[in-house]
UniProtKB/TrEMBL annotation:
GO MF entries: pyridoxal phosphate binding; transaminase activity
Taxonomy, superkingdom: Bacteria
Name the record gives this protein: Aminotransferase class I/II
Species this chain originates from: Sediminicola luteus
Record flagged with keyword Transferase: yes
Length: 805
């Protein structure tokens, strides 16, 4: 199977967000003539607001409002001039106050995203290296990735895994520059924090280690003068830390602030920091509001405000302790996360809470792994204890209803978040109208029944599955040892509604990545063969391609059958502890797309699949005339003139020496083709093919006058499977690249067509690679989708930072 395209991240996010929008939980609009911070009006309903990031409620403070209004009247709605030339009259006072808050020089930026884009390229040198915590905010990751253009190495570690961090530090120790570790102070989804004490110990151990910290969610409600969580832990800012805070969110105004103790670095950033130089400066109203807020932060009042919020956080925590609601991280921040596991459960729970009069946020991919969907609740000074108590009571009542209505339970939520002890004994019941049979071998499945649903495509009719089991059931190395699972779901009358098969196999993680990434990783695999590999539970197998799921959508129970299948896959995924589940080879927009998305799958594009359809109707004497005008020109220039250079042989039962030649030719292709970066086929695969009547070897020998030796040489082979009487499957290919200039690959494709026609087949399944070449010879191209479920986002995100490296 070819890899899934990794360049469609935006499309993946769009599919997730679009599903959430259709459920009415994203891209909403607040209504009403005013806002008070305590309530919010949406879709005509007044709700208590538990979704704000203004934790201290300063955005509604009269002093800030008054200052903003007066600034507009004095200075206008904006000061249309770059800060590089002249700053707004209020800027100097704000910078002075922010420096007092942090106890060191500060730079004001338009917002944190533009701030990161300006600061990171200025602070990080060409000899430096970057390590990202995989939960650091997207704006930090995005700004850091721009440095790949300067060949700055960027790697990623799992969240707060300091053992991984130390390994990376040691790896980068030989570089001449700094090693930057980029993190959040308080993480915006779960409310958990960076381990600052342990990080400072690492900094003392490794002087090259510098920290770049985004602490916008720790601002104001924590620390001396409200300087944030990080400053609260450190007391004063060291020279090896760049710290971002915010003037929005809890601060109550707009903009962001960088604190930097290193004067040389400070001057460099301020002199030329990209967007800091060329972007418009903050509006007078924003500066004035921030200035008013800074005065509060520099007064004793800030500690009163912090204490009031802290008391409400403690109260909320104490109320939650009385329930079974799955709070993902219990801490002292104003951010709380109640896990729902599946997105569909999250949609349901948010909607129920809004109907009950409480606004809460949905936490969804890419902010969290798709199976770690949940509800993000924030506490502010606006919230009253009675409302907090009612919120918890309502959640405790509605949460079980959401679980039940979406076919899940608390144990499955625990399992999704890795709480193994609580997740023991998970068993998903099949609807009483249906019966699910899960077989572990094709020999336990009726041949006629299986072929009635799955024959006619690729190598997974009954005989094809028997072949695969013979090759991969007892592999001597782990990548060649697969587990097989056959699903048959029937109604009470014994009629099959759903038929599918899955395998558990070791996959290379970069199967989901561009060839440039695979190239980097393969260099490491020369010493560490299993670097970046994962156990995957996948529909179908790495050997096959095509519609591995047969679903009778004419049956009234098809949707229940599909959900039962997804539930059992999830149960199996948890039981055998695979890293990922992949449902693959779906055609375009399938009608049950939202069901898959709601069950925690991400939609991704796959390479196009190619098939030669209706081959029986093709007259090979007039084959070329049936091609498009462009394809005819291609054939007459790149295919036809080379036909007579080759001698074609079809071998059914090859000798051991012939098998060795075929395997070597295959290995040539496998070693060259990172676009299909799979573990190589085992040697037993070829010998088993040689003994199976369904396989044949379509061989091309180059005639003596064209070879380097002056003798006829065996230069190409197509490994072809005969599926019944209708489908011919050129599953794998082998070539001698010394003779590629004789259009060897195109000859093998063309000879496959002529061979299938001679055998009387109606169809050729050409597979997923080189669709452009196959289309020129008359194949039809079909776009394909995959649906992926991962335990966390680390693998996908860490591969993403390698792109263009």
């Amino acid at each position: 199977m070819a890899k899934i395209k990794h360049n469609n991240f935006l499309e993946t996010v769009d599919s997730v967000f679009s599903a959430a929008k259709r459920q009415g939980v994203l891209h909403l609009y607040a209504e009403g003539g005013y806002l008070d911070g305590r309530h919010i009006h949406i879709n005509g309903k007044k709700m208590y607001h538990f979704g704000t990031t203004g934790y201290l409620g300063l955005e509604q403070d009269k002093r800030l409002k008054k200052a903003a209004v007066e600034a507009i009247l004095k200075y206008g709605t904006q000061f249309p001039l770059s800060k590089t030339y002249v700053s707004n009259p209020l800027y100097r006072n704000l910078e002075v106050n922010m420096s007092k808050i942090y106890g060191c020089p500060t730079i004001i930026t338009k917002n944190s995203t533009l701030g990161h884009m300006g600061v990171i390229p200025s602070a990080v040198g060409d000899g430096d290296a970057i390590i990202l915590d995989h939960q650091v905010h997207w704006s930090v990751q995005s700004a850091a990735k721009q440095l790949k253009l300067r060949s700055v190495p960027i790697e990623m570690i799992r969240h707060n895994r300091l053992d991984m961090l130390e390994d990376k530090i040691k790896r980068f120790a030989s570089r001449p520059g700094r090693i930057w570790y980029m993190i959040d102070g308080v993480y915006s989804m779960y409310g958990d924090v960076a381990p600052m004490d342990d990080l400072m110990a690492l900094c003392h151990r490794y002087p090259k280690l510098y920290l770049y910290v985004d602490d916008v969610h720790g601002m104001s409600w924590s620390g001396k003068h409200g300087a944030g969580y990080v400053m609260g832990r450190l007391g004063e800012l060291p020279h090896n830390i760049l710290l971002f805070g915010t003037l929005s969110k809890t601060f109550g105004a707009s903009g962001a602030v960088l604190a930097c103790q290193d004067k040389k670095m400070f001057d460099k950033i301020k002199n030329f920091g990209g967007p800091l130089t060329f972007s418009a400066q903050l509006e007078p109203a924003s500066i004035a509001a921030a200035l008013a807020s800074s005065e509060i932060h520099l007064s004793p009042e800030i500690y009163t405000l912090q204490d009031e919020l802290r008391e409400k956080i403690r109260f909320f925590n104490s109320e939650l302790e009385k329930t079974e609601l799955p709070l993902i991280d219990r801490n002292g921040s104003p951010v709380f996360y109640i896990g729902t596991g599946l997105p569909v459960t999250g949609y349901d729970f948010v909607n129920r809470m809004m109907q009950a009069g409480f606004f809460v946020n949905l936490g969804i991919f890419p902010a969290v792994p798709v199976k770690n969907t949940g509800v993000r609740i924030t506490i502010s000074r606006h919230n009253r204890k009675r409302e907090i108590k009612d919120l918890v009571r309502t959640m405790a009542e509605l949460y079980p209803l959401s679980l039940k209505s979406t076919g899940t339970d608390l144990s499955r939520v625990h399992a999704a978040f890795g709480w193994v002890a609580q997740a023991k004994g998970v068993d998903r019941a099949i609807p009483k109208e249906l019966e699910l049979v899960l077989a572990r071998s094709i020999h336990k499945v009726d041949r006629e029944l299986w072929n009635s649903k799955m024959a006619g495509r690729n190598v997974y009719d009954w005989d094809g599955m028997a072949f695969l089991e013979g090759v991969y059931s007892d592999g001597k190395v782990k990548e060649h040892h697969w587990e097989f699972f056959y699903f048959l779901i029937q109604d009470s009358k014994g009629k099959n509604v759903l038929t599918a098969f899955c395998t558990m196999a070791l996959w290379k993680d970069d199967m989901l990545a561009p060839e440039s990434v695979s190239g980097q990783i393969e260099r490491i695999r020369k010493e560490r063969p299993y670097h970046r590999t994962s156990w995957v539970l996948a529909m179908g197998s790495p050997f096959t391609e095509g519609p591995h799921l047969h679903l009778d959508r004419e049956h009234p129970l098809w949707e229940k059958a599909l959900r039962a299948y997804l539930d059992k896959l999830g149960e199996l995924h948890e039981k055998i502890q695979t890293d990922m589940v992949i449902l693959r080879d779906f055609d375009g927009d399938i009608p049950y797309r939202d069901i898959l998305l709601g069950h925690g799958y991400l939609e991704m594009d796959m390479p196009d699949s190619c098939s030669f359809l209706d081959l029986g109707a093709v007259d090979m004497d007039h084959y070329v005339e049936g091609l498009s005008a462009r394809s005819r020109r291609h054939f007459r220039k790149e295919v036809g003139p080379f036909v007579d250079r080759f001698h074609q042989v079809v071998i059914k039962s090859p000798s051991p020496s012939e098998l060795l030649v075929f395997e070597k030719l295959y290995q040539n292709v496998n070693g060259h083709n990172l676009a299909l970066n799979l573990f190589p086929l085992p040697s037993v695969c070829f010998s088993t093919m040689g003994k199976c009547e369904n396989w044949e070897f379509l061989v091309l020998d180059l005639k003596a006058e064209y070879t380097e030796t002056g003798q006829r040489e065996r230069v190409g082979v197509m490994f072809c499977y005969r599926n019944g009487e209708h489908t011919y499957v050129p599953a794998y290919i082998g070539m001698d690249y010394r003779y590629a200039h004789h259009q060897l690959y195109r000859q093998l494709l063309y000879r496959t067509i002529t061979r299938a026609k001679a055998l009387g087949f109606d169809r050729i399944d050409f597979g997923m690679t080189a669709s452009f070449e196959k289309r020129k010879l008359g194949a039809t191209v079909f776009p394909k989708k995959a649906y992926i479920q991962v335990r966390d986002n680390f693998t996908l995100e860490s591969l993403g930072v390698l792109r263009n490296g």
